[in-house]
Amino acid sequence: MNRRLLIAGLIGVAFAAAAYALMTPAPESTSSRSSVAIAVELSPAEHGSLVTRQRLAGNLEPAAEFQVAPKVAGQIVEVLADIGDSVARGDVVIRLDDAEFEQSVAQARAELAVADARLQEARSAADLATRRLDRIERLESRGVASASELDDARGEAQAQQAAVAVARAQRDQAQAALNSAEVRLGYTRVRADWPGEDETRLVGERMVDAGDTVAANTPLLSIVDIDQLRAVIEVPQSLYGGLAVGDPAQILPPGPDSEAVEARISRIAPRFDPESRRTRVELIVDNQHRRLAAGMFVQVGLESRRVDDAVIVPRAALVSRQGRQGIFTVAPDADTASFVPVEVALETDDRAALRGVDSLAGPVVVLGQDQLTDGAAITRAGQAQRS
């Protein structure tokens, strides 16, 4: 019995040893581990400037806006420009009913003609009085005419000269009335005439239609200059001290495919709103490409920090090894990665500027770097691994 138990025990031990041997994997050789190359993706380093920006919400306004308004009241006969139309300085954009003003001009011309006739009549009478005075003076010198007749002739000549002066003044008055009537008639042709050097602008808004009756100085059209726009933002106290007129900025319109547009600070208000503790800042935006429009909501990126003349790498390349921050670089035609300790001067969402680094031996690893050690074998993504 004891012998049978002993044999059974030995068989069990043998089975257990065999099972353990099957379940334990064979150790991998050091040479096989070191021969595995890690696939990586590389990106070149750049040399230049890196900027971080503080984004604030803002609105775009036209750099210049001119409200077209009539100088006289009347009924609109025709609107000659509409929203989006380009107009040149001096173009007629609105016509008012001019029948009443034409009548005023005709009446003023008639009154001027009457004044001209009266002036001619007064001049003729003055000429007669002057000739009579000359004759009396000759007769009086020969003793034929009396002194009283000479006095009467002189008085008459003077009176007729005064009448000429009055008639001339009345004629000038009638001419002025005609000029005024013609000017008022011209006001029925409402023109787009703005100050400034730009010769063309766009109609930004139309407020009236043909048939409307408007009073003097009623806005009819808004003419805007959008070759330059004004971005307006409200800046908190924390950013105020770092701003200066002329500082660069960026305008980012809404939309997934929008591109940033360069701008510069043009005005900074010297006081803060006591409730919001913010101040108004204006920026000038070049809009020659016409991708922006007045009234747009935009994001304005104000420069908060800047590093110039630095080596710039993708932020994804940054790793940490044994408490040190660094990057992995791969020299041209090399099959190994080298760890380079670095000090980061400035980071953005996707890039980092390195301090104290003049150049790198090659591109940096941006994918696969988490598996690397200094001197590790690598293979570039898309390239067959060497045997």
UniProtKB/TrEMBL annotation:
Residues 112-188 form the Multidrug resistance protein MdtA-like alpha-helical hairpin domain. Residues 232-304 form the CusB-like beta-barrel domain. InterPro entries: Beta-barrel_RND_2, MdtA-like_HH, RND_pump_MFP. It comes from the Bacteria. Residues 105-184 form a coiled coil. It holds the Pfam family HH_MFP_RND. Keywords: Coiled coil. The keyword Coiled coil applies. Belongs to the membrane fusion protein (MFP) (TC 8.A.1) family. PANTHER family: MULTIDRUG RESISTANCE PROTEIN MDTA. This is Efflux RND transporter periplasmic adaptor subunit. It comes from Spectribacter acetivorans.
